[in-house]
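Protocol step 4 of 6: structure prediction from sequence.
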Amino acid sequence: MRICRKRLATSAPCLRFLSPRRASPARLLLDMQPPTPDAQDGQMDVCLIQVPFHAGDDRHGAGYGPGRLLDAGAAELLTSRGITVTVERADRTTAFRDTASSWAQENRAVAALVSRAMEAQQLPLVLAGSCTACLGVLGGFDHARCGAIWLDAHADFNTPESTISGFFPGMTAAVMAGHCYVSYWGQIGDNTPIAEDAIVMLGLRDLSPEAERQRLQRSAIRVVEWRDGRPQGDVLAQIERLRRRVRDVYLHIDLDAFDPEVAPGVIDEPVPGGLSLEDAETIVRATTRHFRVRAATLATYAPDRDHDGRTVRVVLRLIELLGDYAGRNSWLG
């Protein structure tokens, strides 16, 4: 396991179911922002953690996503708001051999970085090539009383018994809920399942096979699906219901939750009819207003599939919102 580290000092403020000659999207965002007040005592620092793998495989195009986001100014977007940022990178020490062993090695590094960030009273903000990184994130801290808000076009709720493809990332949320691979997760770190009734899934619109939909319907997970760009339920009501259940949450955003016109640069085949940026802003604001966000993951950015930097701008806006949360909240331990 190899871990790379860089620390950036703060700069002066300025729903259920890039070209070097041009300004980066982050620079454009910064230019549009009003000046921010001086940093106040008690705000959280942020640890940006790069996970340049797709389920342990660094040969996949999504592995380039975290680095591209940093090149676009993700860290500077936070430091410009008076937040101290540490940049980390989770790496493997051996070449890719197979998904099972390489994924485990990758996520042991992720768990170590998340644990270290929390010990340093930092908010872990993870930029990952695959949703499977969430198991490393959760493995890095005691999440026994934690809920999860999960934005995704897919439920990732298959098990080895229900899947017809064997695609491991498609089982990520099922592992998180304790339905499969619990011992395998245990070699990463804390493998306490997130209770079904403490999970809210938003943006879902592509469940496969039918057994996955049936599994989800039998569960206590709250789902707001999306159809034709609209939620098929009351998103804020589900977040409010979760607020009565837990105080802390893990926020997970797979970028394919967005409509492909909004964020085309994702690793899976785009699924039309997803979230708008405004939808996501509403969800993130509600999440950061009602909960203590223990960690957040932004996953599956594929630079080679992006168009005109649209997906980069979406991710930078999400980072900005999470930076606002860190800037107004002290570490509560």
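Step 5 (inspection) to follow. The first helix runs from residue 25 to 32.
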